[in-house]
Amino acid sequence: MPKRLTGAQQAAYHRDGFVAPIDIFSAEEVAGIRAELEAAEAAHGDQLSAAGRNNAHYVLPVLDRIAHDPRILDAVEDVIGPDILVAGTTLFIKEPATEGFISWHQDARYIGLEPHDWVTAWLAISDVTEENGCMRMVPGTHNAPLVAHVDTYGEDNMLTRGQTVPDVDEDASVPVPLKAGQLSLHHPRIVHGSGANRSGARRVGFAIQSYISPAVEQVIGRIWVQTARGTDYGGHHTEAKRPTSVMAADDIAFRDRTNDELSKIFYADAAKEGKY
Ligand SMILES: O=C(O)CCC(=O)C(=O)O
Questions:
Q1: Considering only CA atoms, which residue is closest to atom 1 of ligand 1?
Q2: Residue 102 Cβ < 6 Å to ligand 1
Q3: DSSP string of 53-89?
Q4: Which of 39, 109, 160, 209 has a C-alpha 20 to 30 A away from that of 152?
Q5: Domain 7-266, CATH
C-alpha cells in the first residue's frame, strides 16, 4: 500500500517519469510558508539570490521544515523506499514578466548522483501556470539513457551552464501546472524544462533536489545530507545539521561551503563557469 500516492499515481511515476499534482499543504499553510520566505528575502535578499538560492534549507527553518515534512516524505517513500536522505535544495523563482527560462535537460546528467535511485520533489509556493512558466515534462524519456547536452551559457537560461538537450520533440511535452501547496515528483532522467514568466505575478517553486536513497553515491564531488527518514545505511556522505534560526552566521558559512562544493560538481567538465 502506498503511503501518500494513490496506486494510479505511483504507476504514473514509473510509466511517465513524473507525477503531479500531489496535494501537500493547505492554502493557509502555504500562504504562511510564502510569507515567511518573502520576509526572509526582504531582510536578507543578497543572501537569497543567485547561488544563494541553492541549499537555502540550511539557513531558513521554513525550507528545512518543508524538506522534512512527513506528507512529502510519505510521497517520496512511495517512490524510493523508506530510507530517505535530503541531498540538496533549490529555490526556483521567476519574477513577474522576466525572461528567465530553464532549457530542456536531464537532472542526472550533471549532478553526479549514482545510481539513479533518487527523486526530485518540486513544491509550488505560488500558483504555477503555463503563463508564469510551469515545468514541462516529456513523458517516458526517463526510460532512455542519459543523452549528450550542449552547454549554451544563454543569458536568460537559469541553469548553471545553460545545458540543453538538443532536438527535443516539444509537441510531446506536457505542462505541469500546480496550485500553491501542491507537489510534483520527477525522475532523474526525465527531459524537462520551463518557459519565461509572462504574468504579472511571482512564480515561486522550491525543489528538493534531491531526495536520495542511502545507496546513492556522489561520484563527482562532495555533498552533505540530512537523514529525513529511516537510516543512512550507505554512510557515503556527511550528515548536515538542521537550522534553528533564520540566517545564523554559522549556518550561512556552512551553506556557502556546500555551495562551493556544488559548484565544483556542476562545472566539473565545463569549458567555463556561468553565473551560479
Ligand atoms: O523550476 C523549474 O522550472 C525547473 C526546475 C528543475 O529543472 C528541476 O527541479 O529539476
A1: 92
A2: yes
A3: GBTGGGT-HHHHHHHT-HHHHHHHHHHH-S-EEE--E
A4: 209
A5: 2.60.120.620
